[in-house]
Amino acid sequence: MPHDVPATTSPASVGARSAGAVGEEHAPAFDRESLHIYDTTLRDGTQQEGLSLSVADKLVVARHLDELGVGFIEGGWPGSNPKDAEFFRRARTELDLRGALLTAFGSTRRASKAVGDDPQVAALRDAGTAVVCLVAKADRRHVERALRTTPAENLAMIRDTVRYLTAEGKRVFVDAEHFFDGHRADADYALEMVRTAAEAGAEVVVLCDTNGGMLPTRIGDVVATALESTGARLGIHCHDDAACAVANSLVAIEAGATHVQGTANGYGERCGNANLFSVIAGLETKLGRRVLPDGRLRELVRVSHAIDEVTNSAPNSSRPYVGASAFAHKAGLHASAVKVDPDMYQHIDPAEVGNDMRMLVSELAGRATLELKGREMGLDLSGEREALGRVLELVKDREAAGYSYEAAEASFELVLLDEVSGRERYFTLESWRVIVEQRAGGEVVSEATVKVHSHGERHVSTAEGNGPVNALDTALRAALEKAYPGLADLDLVDYKVRILDGRHGTGAVTRVLVETSDGRGRWDTIGVDENIIAASWVALQDAVTYGLRRQGERPDPDAV
Ligand SMILES: CC(=O)SCCNC(=O)CCNC(=O)[C@H](O)C(C)(C)COP(=O)(O)OP(=O)(O)OC[C@H]1O[C@@H](n2cnc3c(N)ncnc32)[C@H](O)[C@@H]1OP(=O)(O)O
Ligand SMILES: CC(=O)C(=O)O
Predict the structure, then answer these.
(1) Where is the composition biased (Low complexity) (predicted)?
(2) Tell me, what's the pLDDT at 235?
(3) Tens of pLDDT along 207-265?
(4) pTM reported for the whole predicted model
(5) How far apart are CA 53 and CA 492, in angstroms?
(6) What mean pLDDT comes out for the span 374-398?
(7) Domain boundaries defined on the chain
(8) Which of 24-28, 332-336, 338-342, 484-488 has the lowest mean pLDDT?
(9) Rounded Cα distance, 476 and 487, in Å
């Protein structure tokens, strides 16, 4: 978060600690057992298309979830495959969980088989976890058509398996698969299934919206009915096929469920599971439920991104609470209100979940946007109405020509500095030239020559590269190396090109975005031109200028 923006005390954040009451002294205590936060990333999350974790990956994800402070981590299905079996073996010695309990997942015994003879149940017994979660059928249609058995035998399968595992000293949770569909088709049977599991010793019966098609009002009604009719401790497990998984989970908790299952970042089969991070944030910041140990909610963004890293998923910037865009403001009108009070366009204080408020500069910006962006940069522009107006006009004109400053904040900073304090320049360009040559044998080589003046000296440098932009970048930095040896620390780490539609019959233009690193941070710059190399030059020139400024280098007072 930009440090200069005043900290908010939004009603939502006050509610997080006081449950709508008065102050800290009334904050509900954290109690891991009164509302179970049950993570199934390592089981249901891995049912997502394209997501496959090694045993080592699973161990890392489990540690992240434990650090966040969830209560239960479902490690997988030990009777399913050798990898999950190995995970539970290695977890005994390699997973030193600080607060969470590891659980093993599996199904009830097979129909018409003795529970003691079922190898899959034996694998659960031997997984080395204190808690086991069983999937069991709650929908008569599934009993008859998928299990191909009788409703009575299904209840016996549940009863036998729960009793067997509790007798082995396990805490047993039962996932009532297809509970909500089953309840619609035959409510008496679905509720009987819940009673059977609870009476056999299941600590929690988790009502599952397996197909993910339920809407919140129905979930709330059915959970309340099930609670009243069975008296069992109930949990909730929702899928996101109707885009309601998080809402359904929260509604279920408000209706009396005291155990909630979900996955990191909402990974899961088809459209995913309830995003447990959104559920946690909703519980803590809106419903006044303390479900994480003190201070851990602020780790939410970090843990979400760390797990994306392990699963090799690109972080979705629009994810509620944790996404990079979750508190990013682009519209000028929003910024003008946020300038007065950030709460006006934010549902919580982003710092509560470890996120930051950001201002995005674009053609939709107003002066307030630029003023707040200035604050992020450490500039007080409150008295600079005219300069802000000039910058705004320039930004809008350039965006009309193809620039996109929200993707290139370093270039925007340079534009702003130009107007408000006079940009510091480090060199003057005399010329650049790039040659692309195909040699005998087919090799294509790029060669660039750059001529610049800096601190009274003329520097000429020629460099080869694996492409024209690489050659140009190398030649520019070689030319300036004598004046600025620190340039050797800069790396061009990403280069993106987009051809924009031709406008007014003038032909297409090219937008180039360059990402540069100095090992301590990264910054993005932009160039637009009809010629791709010229566009690249503009972006590179900004990249180097910005880098020199970061390094605190001495500008050249004569540079233009
Ligand atoms: C809603 C959910 O997401 S639940 C979790 C689902 N996850 C997975 O399926 C991933 C792991 N699954 C697997 O590795 C395999 O499917 C296994 C090892 C469990 C079973 O493999 P197989 O023995 O080859 O059986 P298959 O997958 O073809 O069919 C499932 C069998 O389990 C039975 N079954 C399904 N649900 C249950 C249940 N709740 N209780 C008991 N048996 C069940 C089916 O009737 C079927 O029996 P059948 O083999 O006699 O026809
Ligand atoms: C158990 C489970 O994953 C489901 O019903 O969706």
Answers:
(1) 12-22
(2) 98
(3) 999 999 999 999 999 999 999 999 999 999 999 999 999 999 999 999 999 999 999 99
(4) 0.89
(5) 31
(6) 94
(7) 34-311, 328-420, 428-550
(8) 24-28
(9) 10
| CA nearest ligand 1 atom 13, residue | 80
**C-beta of 181 in contact with ligand 2 (< 6 A):** no
- Residue 24's pLDDT is 45
pLDDT of residue 11: 30
355 lines ligand 2 (CB under 6 A): no
Which architecture, in CATH terms, is 34-311?
Alpha-Beta Barrel (3.20)
Q: Note whether 8 and 343 are within 8 A (CB).
A: yes
Q: Is the CB of 44 under 6 A from ligand 2?
A: yes
* Alpha-carbon separation of residue 431 from 369, 434, 456, 462, 480 (angstroms): 36, 10, 16, 12, 14
Shortest-distance atom of ligand 1 to CA 149: 45
Ligand 2 center to residue 89 CA distance, Å?
24
Q: Which of the 8 DSSP states describes residue 345?
A: G
Distance from residue 143's CA to the centre of ligand 1 (Å): 13
Split at pLDDT 50, 70, 90, the class of 424 is confident
Question: CA-CA distance, 143 to 193, in Å (whole number)?
Answer: 11
ipTM of the complex: 0.97
Which ligand is the nearest neighbour of the Cα of 209? 2
Indicate which residue's Cα is closest to atom 11 of ligand 1. 80
Residues 214, 180, 103, 291, CA torsion sign: positive
Counting from 1 in the atom list of ligand 2, the atom nearest the Cα of 273 is: 6
β partners of residue 472: none
CA 332, 337, 339, 344 torsion: positive or negative?
negative
| 392 DSSP assignment | H
Does ligand 1 come within 6 angstroms of the Cβ of 110? yes
**Which ligand has the minimum distance to the alpha carbon of residue 181?**
2
108 lines ligand 1 (CB under 6 A): yes
Any atom of ligand 2 within 6 Å of the Cβ of 419:
no
Average pLDDT value for the chain:
93
Atom of ligand 1 nearest to the CA of 137: 39
Q: Which of the four pLDDT bands, split at 50, 70 and 90, describes residue 10? A: very low
Q: Do domains 34-311 and 428-550 have the same CATH topology?
A: no
- Show Cβ contacts of residue 81 under 8 Å, excluding neighbours closer than 6 positions: none
Pick the CATH number of 428-550 from 3.40.640.10, 3.30.420.10, 3.40.50.300, 3.30.160.270: 3.30.160.270
Q: What does the alpha-carbon distance between residue 228 and residue 232 come to, in Å, rounded to a whole number?
A: 9
